[in-house]
Amino acid sequence: MSHPNHVAIIMDGNGRWAAQRGWSRIKGHKAGVRSVEDVLEAALAEGIGHLSLFAFSTENWKRPGQEVASLMALLRMYLRMFRRRFIEKGIRFHHLGAIEGMPEGIQRDLKDLEAATAAHPGMVFHLALNYGSRLELVQAARRCVEDGLAPEAITEEALGARLWTGDAPDVDLLIRTSGELRLSNFLLWQSAYAEFYVTETLWPDFGAAQLREALAAYHQRERRFGGL
Ligand code: FPP
Q1: Distance 129 CA to ligand 1 centre (A)
Q2: CATH class for the region spanning 6-219
Q3: Of 6, 191, 224, 228, which has the maximum CB count within 10 A?
Q4: Residue 60 annotated to the active site
Q5: 16-74 pLDDT, tens per residue?
């Protein structure tokens, strides 16, 4: 079996990783950004076509204000830092989520980075921010109505094309770190036939070697898509 074309990751455990060291949660998020860098490089090296990371959910606003503010500041820094790398390596950047709910500066950076990398032929890096799968489905349904689709024209293809993921392929491998056995409203539609891989490793300890382990586990699976 070939490598998965679309790998999606629910990055979990930054807070626990920091708490184990007696550090603030934000230090865990900073360490988490290093893992994002490592995994991005490893995914490129492995020839993965699409990498989707769940960075901030529609529910994450419930966290303490200081943690949310620090995450936004980290995100801003990260988007700027990675601009050159995306251009050098031909990576296409794409954001998923209701970005109109993000701070204005970040909205600008996201649109800018997406436009600057739109023609890139390489891996597509999808970053989910203010993302929730149910909200994505609701907005896709609304778009079908806005586009004047007749009921019989509302097909899986028509709805799928109006999701934030657009023409990205379905998720082949969905990874979740830190042992949680939940989807947490991430890519519900797109993961209909995804293989799940859950590891106890906390996100800041997840890097190239751990991604390769997940890929090796994927290769052991037999995908039947409902057939025999
Ligand atoms: C999960 O750990 C992590 C998040 C909710 C945020 C993910 C953010 C990063 C990896 C860093 C920022 C990323 C970018 C792209 C700038 P948690 O806080 O839920 O940890 P816990 O489950 O141990 O509490």
Answers
A1: 11
A2: alpha beta
A3: 6
A4: yes
A5: 999 999 999 999 999 999 999 999 999 999 999 999 999 999 999 999 999 999 999 99
- Quick one: pLDDT at residue 1? 67
**What SS3 string covers 25-60?**
HHHHHHHHHHHHHHHHHHHHHHCCCEEEEEEEECCH
Tell which one of 11, 16, 61 to mutate to probe ligand 1, the residue whose CB is within 8 A of the most ligand atoms.
Answer: 11
- For residue 227, the model assigns a pLDDT of 83
Q: Compute how many other C-beta atoms are within 10 angstroms of the C-beta atom of residue 6.
A: 23
Identify the residue whose tokens are 């794409």. 94
Tell if the pTM clears 0.90, that is, is over it: yes
**Does ligand 1 come within 6 angstroms of the Cβ of 204?**
no
Best probe residue, ligand 1, of 14, 17, 95 (max atoms within 8 Å of C-beta): 14
Q: What is the average per-residue pLDDT within 148-159?
A: 98
